[in-house]
Amino acid sequence: MARTEPQINIRLPQDLKEAVQDMASDNKRSVNAEIVSVLLEAVRRHKHGDTPYSSGTLLWSQQFASQNEVIEEIAMRAAKNAVDLANKNNEKK
């Protein structure tokens, strides 16, 4: 991926950041590539109506069984926000 691609900044809890780093290491990818991979999967699920979690604020400890599910939920929300933002930008043109 080129460095000229659009960038976003996000804040993560330390334990989630470490979990993402562990996932990236396990999958032999950079952290950026891991996040992109998770986001692409979330977008694919969203497009096919295969979203396992509802939107809105979630009680993390009650809703998720693993760190991977937390990361997937964050990725799905980020992807949805990105798609919504892109759609709004396209409507303005």
General description of the model:
- There is one protein chain.
- With 93 residues, the chain is mostly helical.
- It has one domain.
- The protein has helices at 14-26, 31-47, 60-63, 67-92.
- Helix 1 packs across helix 4.
- The protein is globular, with a radius of gyration of 14 Å.
- Residues 54-61 have low confidence and may be disordered.
Question: Can you give me a brief rundown of this structure?
Answer:
With 93 residues, the protein is mostly helical. The chain has helices spanning 14-26, 31-47, 60-63, 67-92.
Index terms:
93 residues; mainly alpha; 4 helices
Beta strand %: under 5%
Q: State the helix count.
A: 4
Supply the helix-strand structural class: mainly alpha
Mean pLDDT: 79
What is the β-strand count?
0
**Main pleated sheet:** none
Shape descriptor reads globular
Distance between the termini: 27 Å
Sketch the topology as an H/E string, one letter per element.
Answer: HHHH
* Alpha carbon gyration radius: 14 Å
Proportion in helices: 55-70%
Number of domains: 1
Poorly predicted parts: 54-61
InterPro entries: Arc_DNA-bd_dom, Arc_rbn_hlx_hlx, Ribbon_hlx_hlx
GO molecular function: sequence-specific DNA binding
Organism: Yersinia intermedia
Pfam family, one: Arc
Helix-strand blueprint:
Blueprint: H1 14-26, H2 31-47, H3 60-63, H4 67-92
Helix pairs in contact: 1-2, 1-4, 2-4
